[in-house]
Amino acid sequence: MLEVRNLQKVYDNGTHALKGVSFDVKQGEFLVVIGLSGSGKSTLLRCINRLHDPTSGAVNFEGEDITKLRGARIRSVRSRIGMIFQHFNLIPRRTVLTNVLSGSLSKTSVLKSILGMWPEEDKIKAKQYIDIVGLTGKENIRADNLSGGQQQRVAIARALMQNPKILLADEPVASLDPATSHSVMQYLKKVNEELGVTVICNLHFLSLVRQYASRVIALKGGELIYEGKPLDIDENWFKTIYGEEAVEVTIN
Ligand SMILES: Nc1ncnc2c1ncn2[C@@H]1O[C@H](COP(=O)(O)OP(=O)(O)OP(=O)(O)O)[C@@H](O)[C@H]1O
Ligand SMILES: [Mg+2]
Known about the structure:
The protein has a 6-stranded mixed β-sheet, sandwiched between helices. A 4-stranded antiparallel β-sheet has the order 2-1-4-5, covered by helices on one side. The two termini are about 30 Å apart. The protein has a single domain, classed as P-loop containing nucleotide triphosphate hydrolases (Rossmann fold). By secondary structure, the protein is an alpha/beta fold. The model has no long low-confidence stretch (mean pLDDT about 95). It is built from 9 helices and 10 strands. Bound molecules: adenosine-5'-triphosphate (ATP) and magnesium ion (MG). Adenosine-5'-triphosphate binds next to α1.
């Protein structure tokens, strides 16, 4: 589904954030990216959906190297690769339904959306995704009146409006408490299993990784140092990935 080949990213200030990262993602996988703060996890996701331009290397997706695309063709890739963020990025004063509908913006004129003139089929689709993330009945509540976990579930529903093949999630539960984190992860897993959307997700807690990932890659200093099953990350690997001094903190 996705082939990342020798991906390099050097930021304008000279930071070499990705140093030749290569891996494959198969259709239907729930791939989790781990690594210390600053190891390049966010940079990797941002290069995959072209929020950042990689410096060199290739990202092959649906038959083309998307690192070479420009303009409208980048937007077309972004509509097939959804993204959710740590801080949800919802429109706070708008309703759940409007936030989810805004996920289909690229297909509706901006004026129509400001006037709330959404196509009926989009409204039906939005309500289906609101149901899938367990927010039935909350369509008309303002986003800023929801809990953090509920807001992240709105963000998932919004991302689904584009029918993405891949959903990228950059630390989707880092702002949430443990119980809420599990709830959001369970809905991501549901989207992965029931809708067949491939997920690539950055996570900090290994206990979450073990529970939800089908496969894991670890970055360290911009290099890929581990690729395998979550249960194969033993104590030695843990210390290799996070450093000798690191102690595992669990989230229950
Ligand atoms: N826009 C930017 N300009 C310059 N340097 C950047 C930029 N974004 C990230 N970096 C640097 O690139 C490196 C990788 O950062 P990145 O944000 O990808 O790490 P991360 O693994 O996501 O970390 P965290 O776990 O803290 O989110 C870091 O050294 C960071 O300081
Ligand atoms: Mg990050």
